[in-house]
Every structure is written in C-alpha cells, then in structure tokens.
Amino acid sequence: MTWEYDISSSTALIAVAAVTTLLLKYLHGHNPLHNIPGPQQTLFVKGHIDQLFNPQGASFHQHLADNFGGVVKVRGMWGDEQPYVSDPNALHDILVKQQDVFEETSWFIVSNELTMGKGLLATTGTSPDPVVLELSSFPGTQHRKQRKMIGPFFSMRHLAEMTPLFFEVVSKVRDTLMLKTRNGPQEIDMHHWMNRTSLELVGQSGLGVSGPSSEYALMRLVLAGHSFNDLTEGAKPNEYTAAAMGVPSARFKLNLYRRMVPYLVRLGPPRLRRLLVRLIPSTDVQRLRAMVDIMWDTSVRLVASKKAALEQGDEVMLQQVGRGKDIMSILLNANMHTSESERLPEDEVIDQMSTLVFAAMGTTSSALSRVLHLLAQRPHIQEKLRQEICEAWEAKGELSCADLSDLPYLDAVVRETLRLYAPIPMVTRVATQDTVIPLTQPITGTDGKYMKEIVVPKGTMVYIAIIKANRDPAVWGPDALEWLETPPESVTKTQYPSIYGNMMTFIGGGRSCVGFKFSELEIKVVLSVLLQSLVFSEGAQDIQWNLGGVHVPVVPNSAMPTKSQLPLVISSVKQSMSHA
C-alpha cells in the first residue's frame, strides 16, 4: 500500500508553531533586524525557506550575492527575520569570537540525533541552546570531548600513514572503469561511482571494513556475508550502502519538517515516539526510518566485533582491513584507556559510525563529481593536469601524501573547485543571547542610514552564507564567479575565519569541518589515479546541479529528472591517443 502524506497533521503542527512564534514576537516587540535590506517576501507562512532550500535554489543564492551586501535579511517561518551573513568580521564573531553565543540550531542538533545518533553532529559546545540541552541531556562540553578524541585520526601524520590504503581503494575503481571501457568509450554515471568510492574509503580507513574476500571475516560477521561496498564491475550496493547513499536526499525532502522536530520529541518517551513515527502516513518518513534502522543495526554489530578484536590484541587487529589504524579502532582503543571523565558512553561511540559515513561521503562525493564534470567541460585543463600527474608518477614511482601536496596544478584545481562550488551552500547558527556583531563593510539600512554593526536578538537564526563569501568580488576580485586555472588570491587583506585557504567551504571555529584534510586527500588521490589512465568527456545529456542537502548533479530532461547522476563519456588514455 502506498501512503500519501496527510497534510492535516502537519497543518495542526504548523498552526501551533505559528501561534508560538507570533506570541514571542509580540512579547519581544520591535526586531532590530527589521532595518536590514533583503529580498521581497513572497509567502508569509514559509518566508524564503522554499527559495533557500529549493533543489533549483542556486539562482536565489546568487541573487542574494549579486544584489545585497555582507548581511541580507531573509524571512523564515511566519515572517521570522533572519540574517544571511557573508561579511568577514561578522563571520569571525559568529564562528570564533562569539562561538559560545552562536550555537547550532535545536532542529539541527535534535534531528541529527534522531537520524545519526549522539555523534559529532548532534552535540553542542559550551553554551547550548536551552531547548537542545533539555531534549538531548548533553553537557555543553560534549562536542569538544568527542572532537578531541576523534581529531588525531584526521592529523596529517595519520593521513600520511593511510595514503597507501587510499591509493589501493581508488585503484580498484580505476580497474573497474577500465574494464567497462575495454571495447571503447562508454557513458558512465560517475556520481554513482564517486559515492561508492567515498563510502569505501570511509569504510576502510574510518570503520575498518570493506568488501568480501577470505581476509574480510569481520565484514562477513557484521553483514552476514554481504559486501559492504564491492567496487568490482556488476556488483550491486548492499542494503547498508544503499541506506548510506539515500539518507542525505531523504533528509532534504523533509527539511521543512525538521524544524518542528524539537517540539515533536516532547511527545512522550522514545518508545512512544518511535511508535508514532511508524504511524505517520508518509512514504518519505518511512523510507528515512528504515534507512536509519539499517545503519544503526549495522553499527551496533560492527562496534561489538571491533571491541572483541581489540580485546584479542594487536596481532588480531593487524589482520583487520584498517590494520587497527581506522578511526573506529582508534576511538574504541582510546576510549577504553582514557580517564572516566573523558570517556564517551558506548552509544556515542556507536553513533560516530553513522556520523562519519554521512559527513565523509556526501560532501566529498559531491566535490569529486563536480571537479570531474568541470574537467570534462575543459579538456585543455584536464590534459594539463594529467601531464603533471603522469610526470609525478614517472619521477616517484609511488606518490605519498606529501608528493600530492607538492603538485601545484592539482592543488589549484582542487582549491578552485572547492571555492566556487562548495558542496554545502550555507549552514545555520542560533543566538543564545542578545548580542552585537561588527561589519567589515557598512551596509545601508532600509531607512537609508549606514549600519556598521547589527544587533542580533536572542533566538535569532543566522545563515552562514558560504557560497556568497566564496564568490564575493570585493574579496576575490572581478573574476570571482569564474572557475580559473589559477585560483584568484584575495584582492584585499580581509581574512575570513577559515581553516582552508581563506574560503568558507569548511567554515572555521570550534565547529569547523574536522575531516577537511581527509576530504582534500581523497579528492587528490582520486584525480591522480583516474586521470593517469582515463579521459573524461561530456555526454549528450545536459547536466544540472541541484541542492539536495549538498549540491548534486541531475539530468533534468531524462526519465528520472530528480535522480542524482553524472553521465560522462569515459575512455582510456590509449584509446583517446589513438583517435587523436
């Protein structure tokens, strides 16, 4: 039986949220954000939410970048006024100087806890939103405690040790693609393969699991004989792989309703709430619930197996896929030997698995797909990059993490892609108290007066406008909207609160992307292996990039216009040379 979504229950919830919001506005009086300019509001009920989160919403984000200053006022539910911020000084205050004031929103934290558990994306800093504190029962330092324990895995020293494993995994992908093109050029969905590559890399280096063979006894135990993510030709994703690949888009479809989650989780204990979720007549909700259950059950079994291997000693761990250097093995081992005050509860350790998969797969596969698409559109840049890579392979024989860092053109291509086409266009924060943030460049208010700072009332949701900051001509020069061979340097001394090349792709501060070096290394390894042997060209179908939690490629004029896919024509380098 196919359930259609019953809108009446949502209407009731929206009505309750509306009355609450309007009452709070009345009690607080005039909002100091009212004077900030912004686009015209179309619908009072949903404000600009549909435009900000629409799959085709990239044009609206660019409209905000082209027509407004470093702070823009957009509207949320019921006309709620929300700053959309790209001003460098304002971002520094939000993400660094006042990071304890600007926390993750309650709907972000609580919805992440429900879908991924109490991992790194579902914990708060030192001054949490009271709603989050009440619902999650987390001490404010839990995010920092988890980050401290996970951080060493993402150090350059550890990534250098894992680089051979990266090359081993990506070489399997190359071999499969070469096999597919053995009889000539073939059109292949590269987004599918980049998703599976990212999942296998986080599976082996992060979780210490992989596909089936005699040496993968752990994975046979965990998945009862099924492959985690077999990268050979003709292999189909198992249920865990399918679930991991499906969760981001499923969450995005329910994005509007995620904002009601902090209120919905008040409806009794977890057992009752789970029963109520099963009764919701929504295909999207039930699909997401099923995928979350699959990932949780697998995580529990995997962690139990890992703990058993750890207890058997180093000799057993060295025979595991990650050779005991994967993040789950490191995390479990560290947690077993740390002080009681620093130790993580076992359910939080289990929950890191889903968090790692979700965080490491979607964004990196999006970036990989984007750079392959760009190179297919620009064969001269692809060839120049291939030449640099091939010369490095010939000179070194094997490439290390340091060798990849020393390839300037590869670095330029990766950085420029991550600047202009950040996988995530924006993130959100909420002010936990009244505060003031300064501006680098004054903006002109709707009353015609200059504003050098903005007052942000407690409870205000703030958008960190990543795309707008990365494309600001005042910072990046007149070619800021062009993907260039040589990435533009900042044309001013203005510094964003960034951990990566003065761009906001991985943001900054205490909640910056802990795995950005992992992501960068993965992209460079994939390009250095695939471009050595394969040529990528555009196919006959037009590709469009949609928002789906992250940017994803689609073929709008195909039989499945909303399916994430990137069909590119692939041939071997030898085939291309013979036809040149």
Automatic annotation (TrEMBL):
Name listed for the protein in its UniProt record: Cytochrome P450
Chain positions recorded as heme binding sites: 513
Keyword annotations: Heme, Iron, Metal-binding, Monooxygenase, Oxidoreductase
Pathway: Secondary metabolite biosynthesis
Cofactor: heme
Presence of the UniProt keyword NADP in the record: no
Lineage of origin: Eukaryota, Fungi, Dikarya, Basidiomycota, Agaricomycotina
Sequence similarity: Belongs to the cytochrome P450 family.
SUPFAM superfamilies (alphabetical): Cytochrome P450
Molecular function terms from GO: heme binding; iron ion binding; monooxygenase activity; oxidoreductase activity, acting on paired donors, with incorporation or reduction of molecular oxygen
Iron in keyword set: yes
Gene3D superfamilies linked to this entry: Cytochrome P450
InterPro entries: Cyt_P450, Cyt_P450_E_grp-IV, Cyt_P450_sf, Cytochrome_P450_monoxygenase
